[in-house]
């Protein structure tokens, strides 16, 4: 099978062919992986990177594995920076780098820059084209209506060398493949392109919600990329239903919607509909928002959102608003590479497994166990396992080699093998390494939190006060969620305690120190609420330790958990709170990178 040509020319209309294609590639995992690696290595044989490791044009796995090291983003950063600065020689990839995709994973506080090439867009498009054929096997009639899918673009910048840098979905929604997609009855959106492509997040969300309400009987599925995005849309409806109902009653568009292309396209969609306006008022004016999704969109068959990984925290809230509709997690992907899909999308979130497709890139797996985190061979290079050779039940870190020039790159995701489809393994997404706190796409690690706390606590010095212990919690009870930091303070002079104003300011200082994805969520996307500090009584963290020891923790090895979510611990902490403090302003954020 000629993988490349199959990949790039998969007939879009033929579901049967798509399923057959999945069957074929999953029966040939290992040979396809071997071919993919050979293709990547021959394509990139003359790159500076592969030459640096003396590959000399070799395309076999053994030479590749013996010569090319496993790397992190930080290892590649000097090369990536050269590309960003405008060096267009073949450094990582023989093909010209078309743009940078900005990952939600950060390095030194800024989004990682992932170089990509034009043909990767086709590979991403290919994976998308498989989703509906899989879904159609489980849900019928999806061609008889529309999808209310809240899709947004985010800010983009240019690197010093003039390449665009933007998130992968922004790149996709702005592409011709998306904007000029041929009509497909299974993929009709209620949202017009003009709304999806509007850079103003309020105007975009408002218009998408308005269209969803107008077409409410046609809606068969409701979704967003991540669960947090869909809940933000529900919150938006709570805050804006009166104006939306007014627009529908009068057939006139909210004057806050100023985008000319949205105004033009809505003039064809928005007509006075007093009956619908009355219905929206009746549903939204009450206190009870339980099952609001199925009340407003009664034909919804499922919610299309990712609820695996950090998003699992939103499942109870989604169930509340949807009356427990199925939540198929359809795919597993990243800025670096799209990996695979869920072949049983209607399963319970806890049973979701992703089948990594062997034609998307070359995949290796670093055995992972929590005690030793990496397995090293004698020459201290990690011992990696092939995609076809992973073992059922085992945990691995995903390592990828891509057509765009990443070689043996550690993505940072920990996966567990749950089964096989033909010869192709399926994985449960376990977690992202080193992520302590996450509300939306932000990923804050322990070191960042520690640094933020150190800086904020400088403000306490004038009160002879220091932070003796801390922990944190991602509070998603209200939408948007926010970070809560519990502080136990030591005051040398209790007659002169830190003022409320200073403690509020500490919240803001912490936010300023957090990564750009966090600050973008606070400032531009409104997907994260103001950071909160809860000051707890002296001795609280000792009680926390006593509690852990009573549950079997070793007194010698006990470490304060830097993030908590276990209910009894939360209850203990919350029962000892002396004062609550919130960030008084939004931190700074602009699309420009700080470095
Ligand atoms: P980004 O680089 O910003 O595109 O983020 C990609 C990361 O998001 C992946 O490496 C995962 O950590 C996470 N992710 C993507 N898809 C899923 C999924 N289906 N379930 C859980 N986490 C996911």
UniProtKB/TrEMBL annotation:
The keyword Protein biosynthesis does not apply. Residues 354-432 form the GH3 middle domain. It holds the Pfam family GH3_M. The keyword Aminoacyl-tRNA synthetase does not apply. InterPro entries: GH3, GH3_C, GH3_M. GO terms for molecular function: acid-amino acid ligase activity. Belongs to the IAA-amido conjugating enzyme family. This is Indole-3-acetic acid-amido synthetase GH3.1. It comes from Psophocarpus tetragonolobus.
């Amino acid at each position: 099978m000629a993988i490349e040509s199959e990949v790039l020319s998969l007939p879009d209309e033929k579901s049967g062919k798509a399923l057959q294609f999945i069957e074929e590639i999953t029966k040939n995992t290992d040979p396809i992986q071997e071919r993919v690696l050979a293709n990547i290595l021959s394509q990139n044989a003359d790159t500076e990177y592969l030459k640096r490791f003396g590959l000399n044009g070799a395309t076999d796995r053994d030479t590749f594995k013996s010569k090319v090291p496993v790397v992190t983003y930080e290892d590649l950063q000097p090369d990536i920076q050269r590309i960003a600065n405008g060096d267009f020689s073949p450094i990582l990839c023989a093909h010209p780098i078309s743009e940078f995709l900005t990952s939600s994973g950060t390095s030194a506080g800024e989004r990682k820059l992932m170089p990509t090439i034009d043909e990767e867009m086709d590979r991403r498009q290919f994976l998308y084209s498989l989703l509906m054929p899989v879904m159609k096997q489980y849900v019928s009639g999806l061609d008889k209506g529309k999808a209310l899918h809240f899709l947004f673009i985010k800010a983009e910048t240019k690197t010093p060398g003039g390449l665009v840098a933007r998130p992968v979905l922004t790149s996709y929604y702005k592409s011709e493949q998306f904007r000029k997609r041929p009509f497909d009855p299974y993929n009709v959106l209620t949202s017009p392109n003009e709304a999806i492509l509007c850079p103003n997040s309020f105007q975009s969300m408002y218009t998408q919600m308005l269209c969803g309400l107008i077409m409410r009987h046609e809606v068969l599925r409701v979704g967003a990329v991540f669960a947090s995005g869909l809940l933000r849309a529900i919150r938006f409806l709570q805050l804006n239903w009166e104006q939306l109902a007014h627009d529908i009653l009068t057939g006139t568009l909210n004057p806050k919607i100023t985008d000319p292309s949205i105004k033009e396209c809505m003039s064809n969609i928005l007509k006075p509909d007093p009956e619908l306006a009355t219905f929206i008022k009746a549903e939204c004016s009450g206190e009870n928002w339980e099952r609001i999704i199925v009340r407003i969109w009664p034909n919804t068959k499922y919610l299309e959102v990712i609820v695996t990984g950090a998003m699992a925290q939103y499942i109870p809230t989604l169930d509340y608003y949807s009356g427990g509709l199925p939540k198929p997690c359809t795919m597993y992907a990243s800025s670096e590479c799209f990996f695979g899909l869920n072949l049983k999308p209607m399963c319970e979130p806890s049973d979701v497994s992703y089948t990594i497709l062997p034609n998307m890139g070359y995949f290796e797996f670093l055995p992972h166990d929590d005690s030793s985190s990496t397995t090293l061979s004698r020459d201290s290079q990690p011992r990696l396992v092939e995609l076809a050779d992973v073992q059922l039940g085992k945990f691995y870190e995903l390592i990828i080699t891509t057509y765009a020039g990443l070689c043996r790159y550690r993505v940072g995701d920990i996966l567990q093998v749950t089964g096989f489809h033909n010869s192709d393994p399926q994985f449960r997404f376990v977690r992202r390494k080193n992520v302590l706190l996450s509300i939306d796409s932000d990923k804050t690690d322990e070191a960042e939190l520690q640094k933020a706390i150190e800086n904020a606590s400088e403000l306490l010095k004038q009160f002879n006060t220091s932070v003796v212990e801390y922990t944190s919690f991602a509070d998603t009870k209200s939408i948007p969620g926010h970070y809560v930091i519990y502080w136990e303070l030591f005051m040398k002079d209790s007659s002169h305690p830190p003022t409320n104003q200073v403690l509020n300011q500490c919240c803001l200082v912490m936010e300023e120190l957090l990564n750009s994805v966090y600050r973008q969520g606070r400032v531009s996307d409104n997907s994260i609420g103001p950071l909160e500090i809860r000051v707890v009584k002296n001795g609280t963290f000792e009680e926390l330790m006593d509690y852990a020891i009573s549950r079997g923790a070793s007194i010698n090895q006990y470490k304060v958990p830097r993030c908590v979510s276990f209910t009894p611990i939360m209850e203990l902490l919350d029962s000892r709170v002396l004062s609550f403090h919130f960030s008084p302003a939004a931190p700074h954020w602009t699309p420009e990178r700080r470095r």
